[in-house]
């Protein structure tokens, strides 16, 4: 507890490490409005060791940015130690991410996808704990079984972990299947450990934080999405979204960061306004913006449209609220995005599939011959011919049939065989355009081309 109290100052309001989101300007903004402890984004240990530019950007900090914990991911104790030694002079502690559930962590074999390899995890924590001059902390997710979660936490403590953050969701609870975090796991883990325990999950406002502290007995509460949609969360306030946006943009001018980070933050701050059909063009404009001037223009445009409503000069009408989840609070105020419960999402997907099947049946010609594969699944005449040809090459039959049956996660179209997003080409193109991404599988290079355009624009200047 000495580390928690003396070094960190006993913080209770904590901003989580967030990939491409908890960079220096955002951390400073959060600290100005109540955050008492911040983490860097999750840093890839191998890249951190090899790339000086990546290392310089990752360790960007200032006097206002304290106390700070640097978080790393990886699966090699030696590389993690090398990275931590390079970073220990710039922070109060080194955190190891054993909780990331995203697909990129699965492909890289780190984060929550290490949680079944206890000997490796113990070696990582022990190696860093013995070799660093700053404490080692860990961030994990719970298992389905409470006893297994408790044993896991005890192992981390005995290996040298000095502070544990427990996310009350399992590795599988993510995206549309996120659901609610279980605070009871945090409560039970906190009771058996002698090190400080932070609770993570279900915090969208200060009232949530107060309930979490009372329920779990944790020393502090960490929030991620709640902070992204409302960086003033810790002050019990919900400002008009252009206010934190403009302050954040000013900080970005003082402490430059990639435009992709800025774009991502503005999409979340303006989420409910950009969901309105009347702002569809601004959403597209934000997706394509690649200069501070353009970001400023979008913030000013939204302010000019909705400031009269905010100040009471104009009356807000219910007719404006289509596409904003029937919000009780006006959409220009900073507020969290509440996901649909997993059960409702699954029902909705099932209903859409049935509707699609009905439409397909209605569009079928009554005399049209129907083709089916060996398992009885309907297929096209073209696919039937292909399967007959492949019948003469049985070694390729299984892989082709498997790919044929996989569908896009957003629609009924077949997904691209090499698409990292598990989408059809149209859905993937839309996602890449809005979120500034590349998809090598579909040869969609939105992010790369925007970077090239920005580079050549700077060269001309």
TrEMBL record:
Residues 357-379 are annotated as: Disordered. Residues 15-239 form the DUS-like FMN-binding domain. It holds the Pfam family Dus. Its EC number is 1.3.1.88. It catalyses: 5,6-dihydrouridine(16) in tRNA + NADP(+) = uridine(16) in tRNA + NADPH + H(+); 5,6-dihydrouridine(16) in tRNA + NAD(+) = uridine(16) in tRNA + NADH + H(+); 5,6-dihydrouridine(17) in tRNA + NAD(+) = uridine(17) in tRNA + NADH + H(+); 5,6-dihydrouridine(17) in tRNA + NADP(+) = uridine(17) in tRNA + NADPH + H(+). Belongs to the Dus family. Dus1 subfamily. This is tRNA-dihydrouridine(16/17) synthase [NAD(P)(+)].
């Amino acid at each position: 507890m000495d580390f928690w109290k003396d070094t960190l100052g006993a913080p209770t309001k904590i901003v989580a490490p967030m990939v491409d989101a908890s960079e220096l300007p955002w951390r400073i903004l959060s600290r100005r409005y109540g955050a008492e402890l911040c983490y860097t984004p999750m840093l890839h240990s191998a890249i951190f060791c090899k790339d000086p530019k990546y290392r310089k950007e990752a360790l960007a900090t200032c006097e206002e940015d304290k106390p700070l914990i640097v978080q790393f991911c990886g699966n090699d104790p030696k590389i993690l130690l090398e990275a931590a030694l390079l970073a220990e002079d710039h922070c109060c502690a080194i955190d190891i991410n054993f909780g990331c559930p995203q697909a990129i962590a699965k492909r890289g074999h780190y984060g929550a996808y290490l949680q079944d390899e206890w000997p490796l995890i113990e070696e990582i924590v022990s190696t860093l704990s013995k070799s660093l001059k700053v404490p080692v902390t860990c961030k994990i997710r719970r298992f389905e079984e409470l006893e297994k979660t408790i044993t896991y936490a005890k192992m981390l403590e005995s290996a040298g972990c000095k502070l544990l953050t427990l996310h009350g969701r399992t590795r599988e609870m993510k995206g549309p299947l996120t659901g609610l975090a279980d605070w009871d796991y945090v409560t039970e883990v906190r009771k058996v450990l002698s090190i400080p325990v932070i609770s993570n999950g279900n915090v969208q406002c200060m009232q949530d934080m107060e309930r979490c502290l009372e329920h779990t007995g944790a020393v502090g509460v960490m929030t991620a999405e709640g902070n992204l949609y409302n960086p003033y969360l810790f002050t019990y306030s919900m400002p008009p979204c252009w206010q934190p946006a403009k302050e954040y943009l000013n900080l970005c001018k003082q402490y430059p960061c990639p435009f992709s980070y800025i774009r991502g933050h503005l999409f979340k701050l303006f989420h409910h306004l950009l969901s309105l059909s009347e702002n569809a063009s601004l959403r597209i404009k934000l997706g394509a913006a690649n200069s501070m001037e353009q970001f400023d223009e979008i913030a000013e445009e939204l302010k000019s449209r909705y400031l009269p409503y905010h100040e009471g000069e104009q009356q807000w009408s219910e007719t404006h609220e289509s596409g904003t989840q029937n919000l009780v609070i006006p959409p220009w105020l900073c507020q969290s995005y509440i996901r649909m419960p997993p059960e409702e999402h699954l029902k909705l997907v099932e209903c859409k599939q049935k509707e699609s099947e009905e439409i397909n049946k209605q569009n079928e010609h009554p005399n049209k011959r129907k083709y089916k594969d060996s398992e009885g699944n309907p297929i096209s005449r073209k696919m039937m011919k292909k399967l007959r040809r492949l019948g003469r090459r049985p070694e390729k039959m299984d892989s082709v049939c498997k790919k044929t049956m996989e569908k896009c996660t957003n629609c009924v179209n077949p997904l691209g065989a090499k698409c990292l997003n598990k989408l059809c080409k149209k859905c993937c193109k839309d996602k890449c355009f809005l979120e500034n991404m590349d998809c090598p599988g579909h040869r969609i290079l939105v992010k790369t081309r925007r970077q090239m355009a920005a580079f050549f624009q700077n060269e001309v200047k």
